[in-house]
Each structure stands twice: as C-alpha cells, then as structure tokens.
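Hi R.,

Here's the chain you asked about this morning:
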Amino acid sequence: MTLFPFDSSEFLRFRGETPPKLDRMTTSDSAKLQSQLERFLRLGGIPDPLKYPELALRQTLYDDVLYRYIATRHRIAEVSALRELAFFLMSNPASRISYNKLKRRLELGSVNTVMSYVEHLRDSWLLFTTNVYDFSVKRQQIAPKKVYAIDRGLADTVGFCFSPNTRRLLDNLVFHALRQRSPQVYYISGPGNTEVDFYVQDQQLLIQVAQQIDQDQVETREREVRALRDGMRQLGLSESLLLADRNQDPIEADGQVIHVRSMAEWLLGA
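And the predicted structure, written out as tokens:
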C-alpha cells in the first residue's frame, strides 16, 4: 500500500476543520480556505509532527531515514557527502537538478555516485524526481530533472531557505496531488526557454502554477500564459490549466483555452 502524507482535505479534517463545499463557495469561504492553504504550506502533512508539535519528530524521522535506512543499509562510507546532497535537494524543492553540476558542487568523484545517492533518496521516499516530457527516452534521461520533497514541513525542518519561495512550495503541493493520481508526471520544456510545470501523460493534463496573475502583474501573467500556449502547441492540446490565488475567467485565443482556477480549491478537490 502506497501511503502519502496528508493532502489538503485530510489536513483540514485532521485539524478538526470542515472542508467547504466547493459548489457553494462564498467570499468568506474562499478567504478562509486560502488561509488554511498557507497553514498547510507551512506545516506539511506528516501526522505525528502535527499531533505533537512540541517534539522534534520531523528531524528524528529524517535522521532515521538518512543514516539508518540509507547510509547503513547501503554501506555508504561518504556519509557527509550524502548528508550535503540531501540537505541541498531538500532546500530546493521544485528545482531543476543536473547530476554533473551536483558532482562539481559536492566535489564527488563521479556522476554515478551522485545518481546512486539520489536513487537512494528516492527509494526512501524523502524526495521524488520528474523527467522532461519528450518522445525520445534518451533525452528524457539526460535532460535536467526536477526534484520534489516528500513533505513541505519536513523540508522546512531539515533544509535551508533564506527567503521562502512560495511559488516553488506551491509547485511541491501540486506535484503530490498529481503524483497520488498518476506515476506519469513530467515537466515540459518549450521554445525560448519556456517551461510548463506539469504534464500528466495518461490524463493529457497540462498545468502551470502561479502565485498570482492579477491584471497589474502583466509580466508574470504573460510569461505563464505563453508557456502554456507553447506547451499546448507542442503536445497538440486545446485546453490547459493555470492554478493561481483565485478563480478567473478562462483565457481564450487561437482555439486554445486556459482555465484559471484557485489553487486552494483545486487542491481540495484533486
């Protein structure tokens, strides 16, 4: 049985809060749900640390996995290198990673060592990686991957972030909502260095995450919309989804439709 940390709905129920009815949302409901999402984003969804916040359970869990499950089981001599790699990846959720760059950064002897360590971290479920979507399996394998932490609260406890990047943390939440529904989650790399955050192949679902796309944020809005349009053309799709801070009217042009939905509402119904 595959068991993930709490999703948004489970987090609310665990805290004794009733999830709102999405088909009867009021302005007050939307504001409250947004506040609950921010709390979920900060605390994560591992049950025991939520139940006993006074105990250092996240750190204990992380240390057990890293040292007992990975280092001891796989007889890793360079434990400090494993620790530094895990620290870097947990500190940078929803980021692209390159094995070659990680090798140079950590001054490890070979790319194979980095690949092996990342594989151990994946097998232990501390993190996940996704490939770029491409018809060429070889390009999928050699292109940079994106890394996601198993839990936001755990990443915050053991990683480091001088200035929290809310967009990446939201990416991490969306990834887990998608991963629980399908193992085939990719990102899209388009022309002109554009990128779409998620493509679920078996559902032909293309999703971009944006913290806000209000009319006064023209540059952000244009960038996210352009990436989705490029992605739809690349995949031959006519519809896609843009997740932001609130529901907005669809963006339609040239036979393409971009649905704009509240991130908090989408996560609750995902």
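Strands lie at 95-97, 127-130, 145-149, 185-189, 195-200, 205-209, 239-244, 248-253, 256-262.

Let me know if you need anything else.
M.
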